[in-house]
Amino acid sequence: MVFITLSVNLMLLTYLAAFYYLKTACSLRKKHISYVSSTCQLPFVTIAIPSYNEGEEVVYAVERALSLDYPNFEVILVDDSDENASLKALERLRAMYANNPRLKVIHRSFREGFKGGALNEALKHADPRSKLLVVFDVDFRYQRSFLKEAVLELLAEKAHALQGYQCHVAEKSFLSAWYTSSIIAADYRVWLYASEVLNGFKWVTGSAFVIDIEKLREVGLFTGALTEDVDISCRMALKGFKISYSDNVVAYGKPPLNFASLIKQQMRWIEGTVRELRRHMLDLLLTNRLSFFQKLDVIAYFLQYASYLLIASCIVLLLAYHTLHGITLSILSLLSILALAPLARVFVGLVKDYGFSIGCIRGMLSYVVIACLLIPIGAYSVLRGLFAKKWQWYRTVKSIT
Question: How far apart are CA 150 and CA 73, in angstroms?
Fold first, then answer.
């Protein structure tokens, strides 16, 4: 029984490792870029900024959004704050922009639907002319050209949603900052980029994305899921709507403030992603709107998060197997190949962001240390994603830079 269970776990991890190697290799290829004229008619855009107890950060977030170089847009801040400091910042913001027709400030006294509910609230107040929704988390920074570049690329790709690169540059020498930088680079610059090259399964990731409002309404808007972005991406895919990813459209986010915030963030991501993929998996595998490769890619995407449970199980099973039979050279060789797969992906992602520098070494070391520490916590989060019926959404406290 130990051998059979161990074999199944190793087979699933081998499947995931194969995708790691495939996508790492394909991420080195250059993607053909489509273009549309920058003089074409640009659609009206609604920028939604959901916030919860962000203090003065909301003021800066709105300032950045209003300064974007784009002819037709509005900014809607939907705030769920219940702290006095954040509520005062909200009042100051209202006073500062009382005469600015581009800004709408909405405060909810309840958090129904969490972030997804806040985004739906923004759509209720959106200008009737609005064709596209752009979402920014409060901490994100970007060039003034971000919006125009994102919209032009969306139009060029004939996509219904476009995810930009959420770059998290580690400006401080904290393990949590470097770990965040490494996994973000691996997920975007390698996994999502390769999915774009290979026409695999793609998804929006919560911030720095643009989405067609008509298609969004057609799939039923956002839900109150822990990872509303994964849920909406699955429902978009099931309708046959195209999601694209672009390395050229970049926004800069902040890493979690400390190790505790990082752990909470990772637990939310793992639990939420596993839950939403579990809910939609059968439909995604049976639909004729996804290609065979995209279905294989969805499985690999699920295993990427479920791997915490698989690895934890493998450790226990290997200890039991070693006690009974010993570990053979072939098993050790397989384990080495499996261990190198995520390291290769992270390394290439870091090289794309930092070049061959000390940053790569810091990122790799941080990734190895924290990834190992996350195994039991991640395994618990996977189990919650598979079986828990209730959950609580919590805000990630970000670093101050």
Answer: 13
